[in-house]
User: Fold this.
Amino acid sequence: MPDSRTRYGIPLVLDSTTATPYLVKPIELGADLVIHSSSKYINGGGNAVSGVIVDAESFSWDFDRYKALAPFGKYGKMAYGVRMATDVRENLGCCLSPFHAFLNILGMETLGLRMEQICEGARSLAETLARIPELQVRYPTLPGNPYRELSEKQFRGRGGGIFTFRAGSKQKAFDVMNHLRYAARASNIGDLRTLVIHPASTLYIHSSEEERRRAGVFDDTVRVSVGIEDPDDLIPDFTEAIRCCL
Ligand SMILES: *Cc1c(COP(=O)(O)O)cnc(C)c1O
Assistant:
């Protein structure tokens, strides 16, 4: 990772939601600020909406440049975190309810176990689907994927829980999703259950053609967030749906 701090005078801020703290330790890799949607893998059960900001307190803020932090200048490298905790959290009221915090903590205790099962399920399902000639599957550990080496180095050799495949047409993508029995259609990720969605008509509905293309989102793309189900259940569910619909 380039040292953004010294070269451009800006902090390196990383959304590590999909990587999870189990697979990647961004601060050790040079990130200054790490954000997580804890509604996803950290919670694990899709039952509480919340987020986390982790400040490594590694960035030397230039308070002439980052003017909103200037009143917190006396805190030095802690200025951003203190502003978030006081100015933003206290004044905007974005405070997590105790019950939702409890659900997150309960879920977090099994993060490692879930990630091992999820990564193994995603890998075996993605590899199986990649052998179907009509499909184009994207998953970091697949041969030929440009992120394969990086996932080996930075992801403990795992590929995470999310992959996409292109079904050939929008209609085929819809048909496959509608045919699945175990996987639910939902916009969430990081659930215990396998979830599928058609990104082009949902998450990327407001994006331009160019933005979608850069994100790898096409009309026939299906996103899969793999859960903790037994791959022996998931694989037949997907292969049968694909056999019926392509
Ligand atoms: C879901 C998600 C968010 C937003 O989090 P919410 O908990 O839904 O507000 C941000 N970043 C990533 C990568 C996400 O997947």
